[in-house]
Amino acid sequence: MRFNRSELASLATNTLTRFDKEGLLILTERQESIFWRTDVKLECWCKLRGNLLFYLKDKNPRSSVAGVLVLENCRPCIHHEEPEPDGYVFDLDFKDSPSQRIVTHSAAERLDWVRCIEACSNHQIDLQIKQLEDQIAAATAVKRSNSTIMGNRIDQGLPLPATICHDSWPASAAIATVEAAFEDPELSELPICETAISCDSLPLDSFGRAPNPRVICSVLQPGEDYLWSQHARTELLERTRAPSFLCTMRFLRSAGFQASTRLRFTVHDVRERVSLTSLPLGHAEVALGVIQDTTRLRLPLCSPSGECGSITLSSWAPEAAIEMTPASGLDRAVNGLTQPTQPPRSSTQFFQQATDCNVRHKGHRRTQSLPPKLGVRLFVPQQCGVGRVCANPSQHSYRLQSSLGADISVLETLLESRLCCAVPQQLLSIWIQREKELLQEISGMGELSGEWRWRQMNLLEEHLRLLKDYSQAKQNIQQLMRDGIYYKRSSAKTDEALEFLPVNLHVQRMWAQNDALQRRGVLDIVTVGAFTRHDAKGRKCGGLIKLLQESKAWKLEQSNACKVQAANDAVQATKQLRKEIVELMSQLLQLAAQRSAQDMMPLCNEMINKTQTLLNIWEPSIVEEAVTFIERHRIIEEPDNELMEPMSPFRKITQQLSALELKSPELEDFATPVVAPPDLWPRGVQPLMRSNSWHPSNTSPSSSLDINAIDSLQNVVKCYNAHLRSLEQQQQQQQQRQRQRQQQSAAVPQPPSELSDEATYQSLPPNWDGVAATSSSSSTAPLQLIDLDELVKAVRKRPLTASFLDTKLMSSSPSANYYRPTEEPEPLDLTQLNIEASVMCLVSKLKFFCGRCDSPAIRLRHPKVPLKREGFAVAPQQAPDVIAAPMEPTQQLKLDLAPGPPAAPPPPTAPPKKGNKFTDGLDLSLTTDWVAELRPSMRKLRHAMDRLLKTARLMHSVQRLQQDVRCNRLQASIMYRRDVCFSQALTALVSALMLRLWGSELDGAYMSLLRELGPLAYFEGLLSLYGAETDMWSDMCIAIEDLSAVSFTLVPAAQDEVQPVPRITGSRQALEVLLPVPEHVLPTSGRNTVSFKITPVFFNIGINEKASLGHTHEQHRSNLDNFLRLSQYFSRYRKLGLNATCAADADASVSEWDALQSLLGYMEQQLRANASKNVKILHLAEDACRLMGGLRFTSCKSAKDRTGMAVTLEQCRVLVREFQLPAKQVPYALSTMRSEGTRMDNVFKNIGKHKYAFNLPQVIMLPAMYRPPVGAYGKAQT
């Protein structure tokens, strides 16, 4: 009773209080002082009210209160039925405190007190409520989960299910519009009405204090007389008898509301904000149709004690009273019958219908401070195509007052991105194919000898592990997509099965309208958790920045590390050029079929330039070094013994790789010839079942068979690695023993080797077959090693049915792009000579078809000194034992590919002109099929480029094999962590881009910004550089930096595509994202494709209690670097002269450019100050991003608590800056949005509680403007 003594005393002594039980009891009270301690028996009058047991000072029922016992977590127990000398005794056994002994005067009285105390606890009350709910559900024969059709937002926090209901609108059989097919009803539907609530003359409590009012709206379920469900509620106001609430209530037809729906508005007095303990003051019931017909309705509040004030309902409803006449144009003829039009589902439809009928029909809302007639479009936002890219909306509406007395309509919407699982799945597909390529490269080297075999197996084991992890992650994401889940809860952020998904990815949209200024706008913010790989055990690694620094230091020590990176870049460049050349050849074939000579020559010129670049990528000396290494260390099997001797373990392992469908991604590798993938070791075997082939248990590309096969093969390779290590140790021990014996007795002959014939490099470990057999738990047959010597030696041959240059079929044959283990590499000079000859022949024929048959042949290569690539230590050039290109002593001729006039036909008697040997014997007048003439040269060129790619991949494998094993493992771990962070970052970025392209109206200025400059992407971080969040900040810096290398291209969306999904192509180093957009967005003239890259900036300021403990030096340096990038972007943006945003005030005296310039100058001053928790930097960056039409992202650890504070603050700042919200109303509006807005819905979706995860010390350490309201925070799992 120390804190609320007066309230408890008033409750116990008030004559109007109804107690559950009263009577005389004998309590045992412990009295103690400094020198003595004793138990005193006190007989006093006791009163039981709920779970409070009051005991007075004496036996008089009117005496003062001596104390109170809180009967929670206690149980009354009767240990002895027989009476004791002082009476009938029972004990109150508390959970965490000593028991209390109580004595009554009779057994019946003791039993009565025990029953009352048992029934008064909160646990028993909850059980009684549950029983009553079950009885109600049984009486209505409807489960509670299905009975709450309308409302229930407060209980579940979920959007209402759409139901079919009949209203005053006439029934319509018209075909639904295309927009209604994909948009969510809550986004596009026009509400029946929107109601603002105020009260007056509310009663005072017994102490004369004003109440803390809150209004809850309940809905009577259809067909019921007593089953009410909560639909919406207002915010909580403190100590007022005449509250005016900011939160408004919207009633939608899709939620089951109609004119006859009964509503009950109950006013509660919230006595305690933390537990929301409240008492009802009164209620008022009304039909929805009455509210819809009136703009202001004042109702008295009813209560058992009589009238207790009034409630006022101010409603805004669109007028639907439009005359349905044939001349109005609102009827439609369907199958010869006249059918009335269905009611408009959105404000846009309603406005268009009212415009088409040539009659001035107005849909409006009325308020006290506005003119009597205003258009509906001013009050209901246009969501455009948000429903196509987002799902599961949650909305809250507010009505604020501007400084001029006008209304400010605000609508908050929280949405989930439909791309949360689609983007990571496509990225994983690209990375899976990359690991398969590397596996094929390593196995294509053949079996090596000595220590290189162990390194080769280590690389295979590492790539199999990554392949299994990527495949398992892809399968988990596919399961989520099938379940229709679009976000990852913050409580699951440490789940490794879903680590490629961003944490708590949502779109926060605020639509605002100022009626007096006739201004409306939309603010979109993508909220997402930190882009990092969360560790379930809390282990720290320093983040990607520290790991990359360690890797860089390691590369400086290892000279071969730079060679590996250079070789990888050269392979990627070769693949890209090869792809582009093949595409050019496909276009040339199409033009040749049309005999379009003028269009063929520019493409030919471009192909020559790309071929010249392709020939200059690799140097013969570097390739010769790799080939020499392979020839020195590869084990070559004799052809005579190939079918007699058993296969080695390495060859058996690599043979199993064919079951993993090692092929390159579609439209990336163009293999030749177009046949099924041959075995790595060409022997007579039956084809293994491919993982991507159809099978009853293999219905998806990432089925359990694929993952189990990878896991089985990885265990086999791991076992073989352990076997090789043990052999190395045994050899070392044997050599040491031999040295010792040689020292003891040199004349005694040495004993035979202790290693038996079974324990050699070509043998299997004893338990290998068991590991392979038990590692697979699939329902299908486990993948085991196949002894190819026991199988049939016949090879099943397949016909060549593919067409020429069919890119889809060409990508299905991987072995044409890799050397097989038994295949000898082709010399580089011979490959380059073949490429050059093919291009020379092809270009000569093209010139001949264009009427320039007298043109000489071209040359692509010039004699020059080979240039050394950076990072390579090239050995001295040796005399190559290959065919070299002939050296031309004469000067090389330049190629003139400008289209010229067609040559005049020669006279019949004159022989045709012959320009060079490639066109000898050709007659232009007799050549009718140009395609047939060009096809052989193109086929030769394609074969030569395939062989060049084989050689490039072989050299890359050699460089990786020579790299240190520890460096390979470090780079693999860094790459995996970087992929996880990048997947999360790219998913958030693509979601924001699709929201901008589909969810808002795009003008020409913004499209010019995309085409010329690219958008700005501002990532706002609230992480503290202390503890685990230091790693998160480091990961975010690298992930956001990697986004700048991604290319984006706008492509037209398919007309029948309901949900547009971007398509990701390319490789890890060069990704391209194809964004589908509506056709009207793309330019109709000029360049049809719009490609761009983003400019990401990342500013981080820690705001919680740990921000004062961490070191902010790295954060300060990073913020300065990002400010420099932001200033450079502003300079380029200013040169364009575009106004890509509508947020700037057109009537302001200062231009937008000057405002941005001064804003950046002030931001630089704040950065130079380097103050702790300087959130002004974040606010200035927000304003700059909004003025330049950029994309906004806000992140903290889980995008739930600190992010909610930051987003609501930015919304209020926008309302003050753009819509004239008075500054004195900002704390009230901020508190309302945080306690009753969509950010609280986000908290409930993640942890199941309406509490931000802050405690009181943490709230005190937050900046004042980032503190949540009282009662909105507490103990919650973050």
UniProtKB/TrEMBL annotation:
Biased composition, class Low complexity, residue ranges: 729-744
Lineage: Eukaryota, Metazoa, Ecdysozoa, Arthropoda, Hexapoda
Keyword Coiled coil: yes
Pathway: Signal transduction; phosphatidylinositol signaling pathway
GO cellular component terms attached to this protein's record: cytoplasm
One Gene Ontology term of the molecular function aspect: phosphatidylinositol-3,4-bisphosphate 4-phosphatase activity
Keywords: Coiled coil, Hydrolase, Lipid metabolism
Feature: compositional bias, Pro residues: 899-911
InterPro entries: C2_dom, C2_domain_sf, INPP4, PH-like_dom_sf, PH_domain
Membrane-spanning residues: none
Descriptive protein name: phosphatidylinositol-3,4-bisphosphate 4-phosphatase
Location of the C2 domain: 170-301
EC number: 3.1.3.66
Family: Belongs to the inositol 3,4-bisphosphate 4-phosphatase family.
Coiled-coil features, chain-numbered ranges: 567-594
Residue ranges of the region described as Disordered: 728-776, 896-916
